[in-house]
# Entry
Amino acid sequence: MAGVIDSEDVNRFKRLIFRSTKGKSFVHTEQYQDEENPDSRDMKSVYIVTFQDGGFLREKIQRICDSFSGQRYDLPEVTELQPQIQKMQQSIQSQKLVYERTKHQLRNQLIEFDKINEGETRGSIFIYKMFLSKEKGLYMTLNQMRASGNTFIGYFWAAEEYEMEIRNAMAQWSASQIQVVPDNYGIMPPTYNKQSDVTALFQLIIDTYGVPTYKEANPNPIQIVTFPFQFGMMFGDMGHGSVILLWGLFLTLGEPWLKNGKGFLKSMVPMRYLFLFMGMSATFCGFCYNEFFSLPLNIFDSCYKVDGRAQY
# Structure
């Protein structure tokens, strides 16, 4: 009897087989990597259970094999084993050939379908993707409205400063109408905090603890000062702080061209002011601590006289 199980279950599988058959069986396992998914972390193992055939013993081993997540196969007789292996190898080669031909044919069809004609700048697949995205967004919005005949009625919240901008955008459709509802029917309005590049990341830190309710004081202006300063008090070191400061300056000054790039640097651009403020605070506190890369410096003397315990 043979099959496939997860590699992490091999030892438990061997123990169960040995104990249930009282040592009257032999289990051989071998780990292998899935060729279809070489990057997969889920390792599998092939097992073969050899035992003296008997109805009760076979049934017991089958139940144990079926209790593990995997597949089980009944092996043929030894004399029929080699022909079965050859037959299976031929079947695998035939299926691989059909798969490769189908993949090649589909690829050629997609290339032909996406062929850019003269005078065009985008392929057909890109155009259809954009069309489907717009249709999906349209119907998602319509599903949030209430239909009344041929009219769709929807309610939404918007900041007062954007009212004229919204009306001007909707004015191009004569059939649409926007009306301000004075009564919110007891519904709590959502929180809207106008953000900039400086405050956006600090607001995100606040929102992880809790979003302020409508018209509740937003602690973000205070946190922009206290959060970097508390970090500087903890991380105070002129050397390490200057490294963070230089990194923040690099992201801040290089923002115009870094945001158009790709990879790691682009993902760091929204955090530029956080690094800048933390670096400034850590460098300042390190100057107060007389610390430079964990080495004590004596830039200025202490205001305390240790011997006389006198303060001036």
Remarks:
- Residues 200-305 form one domain.
